[in-house]
Design goal:
The complex is a heterodimer.
Chain A (H helix, E strand, L loop, with lengths): L6 E2 L10 H7 L1 H4 L11 H21 L7 E4 L2 H15 L6 E5 L4 H12 L3 E5 L9 H7 L4 E5 L13 H11 L2 E5 L18 E5 L10 E5 L28 H39 L3 E3 L11 E6 L4 H7 L3 E2 L1 E2 L12 H5 L4 H5 L1 E5 L6 H20 L2 H7 L13
Parallel strand pairs in A: 1-11, 3-4, 3-5, 5-6, 6-7
Antiparallel strand pairs in A: 2-8, 7-8, 9-10, 10-13, 12-13
Helix pairs in contact in A: 1-8, 3-8, 4-5, 6-7, 8-12
Chain B lengths: L4 H8 L14 E8 L4 E9 L6 E9 L2 H14 L4 H5 L3 H8 L6 H28 L1
Antiparallel strand pairs in B: 1-2, 2-3
The chains are: A alpha/beta, B alpha+beta.
Chain lengths: 408, 133
């Protein structure tokens, strides 16, 4: 079969819905359209039944003991906001200290910034060169005032899988709640809220082949029972934690996506690992001066490959391979003109951050696509390096660090 | 980000990529920008010492598509101009020609700086030679 262009390799940004998910959703647009909160007729009952079934499907995926521990939201940004603000508000008499890391998603970091303005204290932990949090640092940061630790399961840029089980042991022993933004890791690596002592977990459907606009927050109900203050006022849905008519269609899709993941993730992870290694081996085999950003396996998402193509600027690279959807840590690709704060926190130099490209492989990528992308990238790295004054200086043996660059 | 057709054309078919002998007294080299900022432009102009007309121009650029297109464009523009005329080129002309969005204006500023820097290098070489005589 002929290769179809463009090629999507940005599965960390979002994923297409699996056709099986769409099929499950369809009846809920037109026939089974009831409000799950309508308790007095069959339309409501049908919707409620579907929502409760999906709750079980999502609970099963993350190893939750009870489906009552799943609170539906609009996505992971809302889940992160609800977890952090809700817990901070409820437990503020117990303590005012939170711990997180410098490489969290903005939905966590900016929520923490707001909490700081409201009088909470937040410790932002450093990560190592590989992007990993040291559990020892978590331990040292916990004080008698600490109420919550928030560490992501896997990083969206460099694919680092955090030692959550170790951190969970520490937080449980210290009597501190553990929240994780599990969005990038669920269905890609081992994740079990019981085994890892996770108390709150943010999830979203659109990173796991479900629809956009629906997410969930896992809120532990026993040992310990986690309490939080709702952040939106309304009809008191979701046991008072999140008001708003449930997005039945989206929730059905999320449930189906979770069910597929539960069944298939191990095989899928193996397949993606093989594809990613094929891409990595080809690129490193053909090109010199490449830097891999992030941790080695098994502390790396199987579908993640983040490489700095030194002496080539990331946005120019993306423009060169415009038939391939990837993303870059280069400042030029962001509205703020700031290079990736994740790479900076890992101690990656700004030059390398500007040269970084993130390949995110997923369910529908093929070996043929990987081969095509590898060939394309290799060709254009050569072309752009031939056009790069830095590459020429590097080849002449000039140490670029000795040059007085005029900052602008 | 959607680029103008002119940016894409210059990016995909850059004019005058290359290197001139930086030790040649008639070659002025301008190296502007910084790797940490994500763009570095090197513009080299071969200038006739008698007429002060730019006879050749070459560039190499590390940077985004707009930076590459801006440098490619100025190599075309400065050729055949006297250095006084070349000094008068403004970044706003580059912005207009390439239809650069506001976040890419710094690329055009860099290209203007590169011209000025290359001409300054040529002039300082010339002055050094005159002083040595």
């Amino acid at each position: 079969m002929a290769l179809q262009l463009p090629i999507y390799m940005d599965y960390h940004a979002t994923t297409p819905a699996d056709p099986r998910v769409v099929e499950a959703m369809l009846p809920y647009f037109t026939q089974k359209f009831g409000n799950a909160a309508s308790r007095n007729h069959s339309y409501g009952w049908v919707a409620e039944e579907a929502v409760e079934y999906a709750r079980t499907q999502v609970a099963t995926l993350i190893g939750a003991k009870s489906d009552k521990e799943i609170v539906w939201t609009s996505g992971a940004t809302e889940s992160n906001n609800l977890a952090l603000k809700g817990v901070a508000e409820f437990y503020k008499d117990k303590g005012n200290h939170l711990i997180t890391t410098k490489i969290e998603h903005k939905a966590v970091l900016d929520t923490c910034k707001r909490l700081e303005r409201e009088g909470f204290e937040v410790t932002y932990l450093d990560v190592g060169k590989d992007g990993l949090v040291d559990p020892d640092d978590v331990k040292k940061a916990i004080t008698s005032k600490t109420i919550l630790v928030s560490v992501m399961l896997a990083n969206n840029e460099v694919g680092t899988v955090q030692p959550l089980a170790e951190i969970g042991k520490l937080t449980r022993a210290a009597g501190v709640l553990l929240h994780t933004d599990a969005v990038q890791g669920v269905g890609k690596v081992e994740f079990d809220v019981e085994a890892m002592n996770v108390d709150l977990a943010s999830l979203t459907a659109h990173k796991m082949y479900g629809p956009k606009g629906v997410g969930a927050l896992f809120v532990r109900r026993s040992k310990p029972r986690v309490r939080l203050v709702a952040q939106m006022d309304g009809g008191g849905h979701e046991r008072g934690m999140r008001s708003g008519t449930l997005n039945t269609t989206g929730i059905v899709g999320f449930g189906k996506a979770a069910e597929i993941m539960t069944r298939e993730w191990r095989d899928e992870a193996k397949r993606l690992f093989t594809l990613r290694e094929r891409l990595r081996t080809k690129l490193f085999g053909a090109l010199g001066d490449l830097h891999l950003n992030g941790a080695d396996d098994p502390r790396r998402l199987p579908g993640n490959l983040n490489i700095s193509f030194t002496y080539v600027e990331g946005e120019a690279m993306m423009m060169a391979i415009k038939d391939v959807a990837v993303s870059s840590g280069s400042a030029c690709t962001s509205a703020s003109l700031e290079p990736s704060y994740v790479l900076r926190a890992m101690g990656v130099g700004e030059e390398d951050a500007h040269s970084s490209i993130r390949f995110g492989l997923g369910r529908f990528n093929t070996e043929e696509e990987v081969d095509y992308v590898a060939e394309l990238v290799i060709r254009h790295v050569h072309r752009l390096r031939d056009m790069s004054p830095l590459w020429e200086m590097h080849r002449e043996g000039i140490d670029l660090k000795t040059i007085q660059w005029a900052a602008h | 980000m959607a680029y103008s057709d002119k940016v894409i054309d210059h990016y995909e078919n850059p004019r005058n990529v290359g290197t001139l002998d930086k030790d040649d007294p008639s070659v002025g080299t301008g190296l502007v920008g910084a790797p940490a900022c994500g763009d570095v432009m090197r513009l080299q102009l071969k200038i006739n010492p008698e007429t002060e007309i730019v006879e050749d121009a070459k560039f190499k650029t590390f940077g985004c598509g707009s930076a590459i297109a801006s440098s490619s464009l100025v190599t075309e523009w400065v050729k055949g101009k006297t250095i006084d005329e070349a000094m008068k080129l403004q970044n706003t002309q580059i912005v207009e020609e390439l239809n650069l969005p506001p976040v890419k204006i710094h690329c055009s500023v860099l290209a203007e700086d590169a011209i000025k820097s290359a001409i300054a290098d040529f002039k300082s070489k010339k002055a050094a030679r005159a002083a040595a005589k």
